[in-house]
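Appendix B, Record 12. Input sequence as logged:
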Amino acid sequence: MEITDEPPEPLGIVPVEGRGSLPFALVHGESLVAAASWALTTAGARLFDYGVSLAGIQGAGEMLVIHDPLCPLTPAAFLSEAMAESTRTGAVVVGVRPVTDTVKEYDGHRLGATVDREDLMCVTSPVVLPAAVVAALDALALDDLAVLVEGLTQRFPVRHLPAPVLGRRVVDEADLEVLSALSAAD
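Logged structural output:
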């Protein structure tokens, strides 16, 4: 057995469930899933099938990096930075972007006051789970990363890492056009 000082290769998942057909749309000639998978492997993660069981993930005993295909142009360097931050701190690390839309309170019948955006953030990608967190999980729902992060925050230390502009999440084809244009301007 060879002994090295290299940390184990993190596991990576690019989940498509709960995202409709958008992960299979094209950006720069590649599907969003392919673009996200490429970034994840370039950042040093070993791809796991997104349908693998939690027990299978836990059995590997490694860090898990979840990269949403709806954040297809997240730079590999940012994914690497998030993995390094998780390794350094032992915390779950979540890529986030600032909220730029106006947000209003709503009581079910009428709009209320405007919410201060300074305290709001949008979960993007990645969500990096240290091996100890993966081992402690009872379930791992990947269809909504914001809900996943909310649950993780209740049980584990979570650090927010500001994602670059190209790390933004798309919700439809119009968003994808904007992201593609932004990447062409870089």
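Helices lie at 32-42, 54-60, 76-89, 131-136, 145-155, 173-185.
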